[in-house]
Amino acid sequence: MSAPATPDRRWAEDLALTRACAAGDEAAWRELERHHFPYVRAFAQRFGLPEHVAEEVAMQVIGDLWRRETVARYEGRSALRTWLGALVTNAALTARVRMRAREEREQRAARPASSEHGMEDAEYEAALGESTIAALDKLDFRSRLLVLLHYEQGLTLEEIGRMEGSSKATMSRRLHAIRAGLRADIEHRLAARGVSWDEIRPDVDLARLDLSLEALLGRTRAAEPPAGAGV
Amino acid sequence: MDRMEHLDPLALAAFQDGGLTSGERASAETHLAVCAACRDRLGAQIRAAAGREAEGDEGRRAGGGFAGAIRPDREMRRELLVAAAFGAVLVGAGLWWAADRAAPERGASVQERAAIPRETDSAPAPAAPSAADRELAAGERDRRAADRAAEPSPAEDVESELLALRGGARRVDGKTFRLEGDQWVDDAWTAPPGRPPLSLVRGTDAWRAALAERPALARYAEVGPRVLVVLDSLAFRILPAP
């Protein structure tokens, strides 16, 4: 999906700069290079990539920005730096997926088979995982996104609220209500599968649901294949 | 199978900054709720912009440990905090803390510490921040101001730096903890075969529940503001209260 162009006055200066660059204004290019390219380089260092890979990512984004048609794509609907950050993130995650795929190919042969968990644990974990995922799937998209951004992506309620113009307190209230609903749903699903209350209680207790969700979503995401990053 | 159309960087940036119309926003939310790849990109770009490491636990370990993922401007901040700690020894800890408490807000306190000369710091210092790092820090002042509330308190920060200078390792109840980045890591910690560490924020219901179940966590929590400890074959990441 691409956002249609409706510039926001908050970022009028950023838009004027990129439009001047797209029009071939040399002074504008110098300003872009001086004020924003260092940010791209520094931002690329934040993804835990080896230094030379991070530098390659930055150079790839900067090289792309030098093309007028790329810089002309900025529409002034976010801060220029947010857009640059999104470009860097895209390139960095793509680089990371490639790097990990290569590392995994190299390590696969040497990896020992794991048999550390008992069968009962594995069955319970599977029941808890499936019940939680099923309960999450039942949520409306907005609630599901809030849970996933918080527990899976590790964003703070303040960061999530900032994106939609809501306060941290509002997000907290929403999340509390969602968790209460999730707890009841998970408990019901687990009970239906014959899991005893003693087994359920520690993981669906509302105070500990945070831990369970974080552990489950973290594990679920870690087990997924690398996401396709090309857009 | 239908090919899923992902959100492009323009749309993700506009989503992050609140630049979408309500209809576009609803559409983006619907997509993000079901598309892990786009959620990963949004999460990574927001975490990176906020100065937190932009990858998960698995990647952070693969990438050379927590220290390798610390943002450059955080390094600069730590360096300044070390200088502040030594300055405090010279001029009197009481005066320093009184001044800190008198500051109208935490942001002002950090700025005051930044003004303390580094000449008093005889310990090996992290690499000096580059112009790019300073540029990054200046450009994100607003975002970081909002994030400061989630950072450890000045006391916790300085305490952590001082412990690091004393040798970088602490022993509690037979466990040895070593400072990696800003986190004390249990020597028993290895890459987990299953669950990642459970994050416990001090003062929360989850923290109290975990303490009730495993009282030993309280002793290990005293190692520092951020502690990664292995207990009963489970890993816990203990974090400071917001």
Outline the structure in words.
The complex is a heterodimer of chains A (231) and B (242). Chain A is mostly helical and 231 residues long. Chain A has twelve helices and no strands. The longest helix of chain A has 29 residues, at 80-108. The model of chain A is unreliable at 114-119 and 221-231 (pLDDT under 50). Chain B is an alpha/beta fold and 242 residues long. Chain B folds into three domains: 9-49, no CATH class; 69-165, no CATH class; 169-239, no CATH class. Helix content of chain B is 53%, strand content 12%. A six-stranded mixed β-sheet of chain B has the order 1-2-3-5-6-4. The chains are: A mainly alpha (231), B alpha/beta (242). The interface between A and B is large, with 77 and 84 residues.
Low-confidence stretches of chain B: 56-88, 99-129, 137-166
Helix content of chain A: over 70%
One letter per element, helices H and strands E, the order of chain A comes to HHHHHHHHHHHH
Query: What helical percentage do the residues of chain B reach?
Result: 40-55%
Query: What best-fitting shape of chain A do the alpha-carbon axes yield?
Result: flat
The amount of beta strand of chain A, in percent, is: under 5%
- End-to-end gap of chain A: 10 Å
Calculate Rg of chain B over CA atoms. Answer: 20 Å
Backbone shape of chain B: elongated
**Total domain modules of chain B:** 3
Largest inter-chain contact set: A-B, 77 and 84 residues
Helical segment tally of chain A? 12
Q: What's the pLDDT, averaged over the residues of chain A?
A: 79
Biggest beta-sheet profile of chain A: none
Q: What is the number of beta strands of chain B?
A: 6
Q: Summary?
A:
Chain A has 231 residues and is mainly alpha-helical. Chain A has twelve helices and no strands. In chain A, helix 1 packs across helix 2 (26-35).
Secondary-structure map with pairings?
The complex is a heterodimer of chains A (231) and B (242).
Chain A: H1 12-22, H2 26-35, H3 37-44, H4 51-65, H5 68-71, H6 80-108, H7 119-138, H8 141-152, H9 157-164, H10 168-192, H11 197-204, H12 206-223
Helix pairs in contact in A: 1-2, 3-4, 3-6, 4-6, 7-10, 9-10, 10-11
Chain B: H1 9-17, H2 22-34, H3 36-49, H4 57-62, H5 66-69, H6 72-91, H7 93-102, H8 106-114, H9 131-139, H10 141-147, H11 154-165, E1 169-172, E2 175-180, E3 183-186, E4 198-201, H12 205-213, H13 216-221, E5 227-231, E6 234-239
Parallel strand pairs in B: 3-5, 4-6
Antiparallel strand pairs in B: 1-2, 2-3, 5-6
Helix pairs in contact in B: 6-7, 6-11
